[in-house]
Amino acid sequence: MIGRGEIYAANQRALELSDALRLVAEDLGWGETGGDPIELTSPPDVLKRSFTRPLNGAAKLYDTQGGAWEEARQQEREVRTVQEACDAVLAKLGETQRDGEPQVS
């Protein structure tokens, strides 16, 4: 037996799919615009639903992963600082090595 929650979820998925198809079929096209500006002609409620979903998904992803992304950016900055410092010292010594192998200039 199918529960009310499953029917609601199925209806939501159907609405999402129909909104996406309408946006592509009526507004965005199937790649035939050639990069020219387009006019969004779908009704405002369809546009609102179509653009709110990915925005909310991106916000949720950032909420769960944003800290890790910032930590990775910080680590990248630190690695670059170390590389620049080491390169500067090696350059003063007339050396240009990284990872144990001479760099070809």
Task: Give the topology.
Elements: H1 4-28, H2 44-92, E1 97-98, E2 101-102
Antiparallel strand pairs: 1-2
Helix pairs in contact: 1-2
Structure description:
- There is one protein chain.
- By secondary structure, the protein is mainly alpha-helical.
- It has one domain.
- The chain contains 2 helices and 2 strands, in the order H-H-E-E.
- It has helices at 4-28, 44-92, and strands spanning 97-98, 101-102.
- The chain has a two-stranded antiparallel ribbon with strand order 1-2.
- A hairpin with a 2-residue loop joins strand 1 and strand 2.
- The longest helix has 49 residues, at 44-92.
- The chain is elongated, with a radius of gyration of 26 Å.
- The termini are far apart.
**If you compute it from the alpha carbons, what radius of gyration comes out, rounded to the nearest whole angstrom?**
26 Å
Helix content: over 70%
Supply the number of helical segments: 2
> Spatial order of the strands in the main sheet?
1-2
What is the count of distinct domains?
1
Number of beta-strand segments: 2
- The termini sit apart by 72 Å
Features of this protein?
105 residues; mainly alpha; single chain; elongated
Write a brief structural summary:
The chain is mainly alpha-helical. The chain has helices spanning 4-28, 44-92, and strands spanning 97-98, 101-102.
